[in-house]
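Our preliminary data section would be incomplete without showing what the modeling component actually yields. Below, a chain of 239 amino acids is followed by its predicted structure, encoded as tokens that our downstream tools consume directly.
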Amino acid sequence: MNEVANGFFDPLTGNPLRPGAALGILPLGTGGDFRRSLGIDLRNSIDVLAGGTARHIDAGLARYKGYDNVMHSRYFVNVVSFGMGGDVAARSHNFLSPASGKAAFLLATLETFLRYGGKRVRLTMDGNIGSHSFPVTNVAVGNGRYHGGGMHVCPKAKIDDGALDVTVIEYLRMHELAANLPTLYSDNLYRHRKTHHFRGRRVSAESDETVLIEIDGEPLGMLPLEITVLPGAIPVLYP
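Predicted structure:
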């Protein structure tokens, strides 16, 4: 999904390569998170591809440090996360993947948590407005609402409002994560005292520790990271 979305843009100029093209989705991937925000499933996907309506949605541009210690740029349409999210993405293609993407992500989450310690991250929204520092389990920057195989990580996000939603989950110990998984996977996660919700058009993050990132489910690098929203950048076929 992320590779196809990146194919819509000229890598040098950022301009659309074919302005008349629209993104269509056949939801056979591991997580199936982006299609949830669009209201697409296997039952209606063929009809959407054949006769759906093209509607412009936002995209994001992420600039981050790759595993080669060089800064890279990548477009995304759904969610960028860092902290446990980067580790989980690397573990999500496991023996459960063919049967259930949600189960595969849940197993990857539990495996990661056994090895994960909270890492302090500094966040800045829209320049110098709204700077924060947290010891985190995970931070998600969402254009879409879901990641991790159905986790409502950014339940208030809208894919065409020209803004990004930021969800911070502060560091949770093993017993806290186990006790709160149902809440953290629900659209009520902000009721938890260790979650925070922000919004912005530009989000940057840095840390003195190694903090892995994932972009639309792809484990691609680490902090530092800067994300900018691109309003109405991609036409997508809707039901």
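Strands lie at 53-66, 71-76, 79-83, 119-125, 131-142, 164-170, 195-200, 202-206, 212-215, 218-238. DSSP finds six helices and ten strands in the chain. Preliminary results of this kind motivate Aim 1 of the renewal.
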